[in-house]
Amino acid sequence: MVEVCLVLEAAGRAAARAPIMQSMLAAAAVDRYAGSHINSERLQSWLAGQRIVTVCVGDGHGGDGPTGLAAARRGNDWVLDGALSFVPFGAEAEDVLAFAETEGGGLLFVMSPRAAGCTVQPLATTSGAPEARLEVRDMVVPHTDVVIAGAGAPDARAWLWERVLVGGAATLVGLGDAALRLTASYTSQRLQFGRPLSSFQAVAMHAADAFIDVEGAKLATLQAAWRQGAGLTAQREASIAKFWASEAITRVLAVANHLHGGMGLLLDYPLARYMTAARHQAIANGASQWHLARLGSLLAVRARADTNALLDA
Question: Whole-prediction pTM value?
Fold first, then answer.
């Protein structure tokens, strides 16, 4: 995951609109959870870059919220009904790794948006990032496209979702870093009262605060990524990374906008793309305040466990 995050940070610096995170995490999830029955030809096409794959583990807060899809058995295969909203690259993807609820726990599977029974509705987003709503009616998923089914599927979903959180935080770090570098270049060249803007103390202090925000978000993200890569529990760390990156990089982009003055309002200036992409990423998979509440719940669970352990002792 550390290597994945470094790639995503670089993609964030370019404000790249490409399913980089989705491709890597989909392959990682299938590699971890799928049995030998999975369609190997499809996986080879992912690895060769011949098919676009994306990930959607649920509407809004995909770790433990409703998925929007229900699945029922039909012989060896499964039948889906429901809808997935805000699927990244949903209209462009040839494969979607998704999760559905079942009577036996859940289903993590690969579906094709172009298959019979699926209707794709492209969505217009403020950032321009391609998303879509997938409406599914009586859609058959063959058993060869099922990654994991039953009681273990929710754990696989949580594993994948927490890595989506950290990957999103890494993307935010890249966006913030690029915006800060652009701002440093602009304020060093823009003259005011015969001096570069960067030479004024107020400008330097704002830029320094933004630099600390970027570095703090990066450290929180890499800590979570390292724990995930080492196979350690990272529930708290994933939400910390997402919270900190969302809050910090939003502040960084606000500073970048202010220090650019009127230039910061131009839609054809690179800063505009960083700003809209960062705002989009900051609210994806749970905004900062949602993750703050989640952290509170996790701390409460731990506190109760510690208290019970003391009472038992």
Answer: 0.93
